[in-house]
Design brief:
Blueprint lengths: L6 E7 L2 E7 L3 H21 L5 H36 L2
Antiparallel strand pairs: 1-2
Helix pairs in contact: 1-2
């Protein structure tokens, strides 16, 4: 089993510094953090009274909702492609 090197990347999310440790390149981690920060800002604009914990939970729920929709769309697309291949045989 290979030991993969882990990268440490410090990011800012909602005016707070976090150090992320993982195998992804720093540029990828920075992009993810930037998108999380943007989503938190969008949600906070809609409700200024949210505390940080509530804001973080709503951001996570919103993001997971979008992820599941994309996953379903992807599965539908794959199904359509498989059906299309079956017709050509």
């Amino acid at each position: 089993m290979e030991h993969e090197e882990k990268n440490r990347t410090t990011v800012m999310i909602h005016n707070r510094s976090y150090t992320i440790v993982g195998q992804e390149p720093a540029s990828h981690v920075q992009l993810v953090a930037s998108l999380v920060n943007q989503k938190m800002q969008e949600i906070q604009k809609m409700n200024h009274s949210l505390d940080t914990t509530s804001l973080a939970v709503l951001t996570a729920v919103n993001t997971m909702n979008n992820y599941l929709k994309l996953k379903e769309d992807y599965a539908t697309l794959l199904g359509s492609m498989k059906k299309g291949r079956g017709r050509g045989k």
